[in-house]
Amino acid sequence: MAGSSSLDALVQALRRLPGVGIKSAQRMAFHLLQHDREGARMLARALAQAADNIKHCELCHTFTESAICSTCLDERRDHSKLCVVETPADQSALERTAAYKGLYFVLMGKLSPLDGIGPKDIGLQKLFARATDGVVQEVILATNFTAEGEATAHVIGEALKSRGLQVTRLARGVPAGSELEYVDLGTIAHALVDRR
Amino acid sequence: MAGSSSLDALVQALRRLPGVGIKSAQRMAFHLLQHDREGARMLARALAQAADNIKHCELCHTFTESAICSTCLDERRDHSKLCVVETPADQSALERTAAYKGLYFVLMGKLSPLDGIGPKDIGLQKLFARATDGVVQEVILATNFTAEGEATAHVIGEALKSRGLQVTRLARGVPAGSELEYVDLGTIAHALVDRR
Prior knowledge:
The structure is a homodimer of 196-residue chains.
Chain A lengths: L4 H10 L7 H14 L1 H17 L1 E2 L6 E2 L5 H4 L4 E8 L2 H10 L4 E5 L17 H8 L6 E4 L5 H15 L4 E4 L15 H9 L3
Parallel strand pairs in A: 3-4, 3-5, 5-6
Antiparallel strand pairs in A: 1-2
Helix pairs in contact in A: 1-2, 2-3
């Protein structure tokens, strides 16, 4: 836009968001300036506060504002179980099921050799140290069921089994509420193999 | 996310952006915190600065940091021509053509009765006062060729013609570089009617 360096700077800054190109950035900037200045100020404060205050939990590596997150500090949880997930969003999905009462370890990524992301980049040493603290008995691998997620689960599983821990993986099978006719064949094949 | 109010606040604030739902907001927040904290701080500064500094040009109503924008102040431009556009993005598109050297009036919206947006909401009185300053001879209507844009152009055109101004509309026709076979029929019909 001609004549406004603040507007140009805002559009450029919005493009740093993932999935936002020049057109979306312009639309966001116009919307905030034209219809929602309070939203713009609120977002500015939230960004600055989050960038300054949020760090990683020393135990589970998730985002938190304290040294150790509230989940890890919760005495009512089962400290003998450790569930390994890729992102805080995955952790949140598991929490919403209310079916798991153990602790978590959040990788904040996954092994992805094609993108140059190896074991060091996702802090596997930290996970191995955490899992071998003597309290953890079972490690549940809940990485995604994608190629990278499966590879990550495999690498972690092998390493932890060699350290004498019980390692399990989330069950693969037919999703709840689905009709077999419309389920993909790979899923049905897995469900057959893992039948119980 | 459990245990971090800064992160929750950031996700909620990101949802104020147009086209951003809960999943995108989470993805944006994780990306900024995990990979681009400097980007988060930069965006925070840009938002605060833009929200505080950007106002509307007193003459053309576009976004600017001064009372009157640099385009309106430019003495080399043809002050007898006034081009009416819906948004600063449209103005920017016209500027990039380098085919227009007159001035602009930016509506910052369009008539849209279904959304309750009438003549007062898009400042048509301000446009009428601007166009009848005695210097402007021709008003070029460059609102979008959508239903709302056409209606807006019609209303403005009728009002300005009754005030004795020359009113023109951007030509409708076949886009540059296109093959007739693949152009929609409405466009070809318009191009036939407006042939020259």
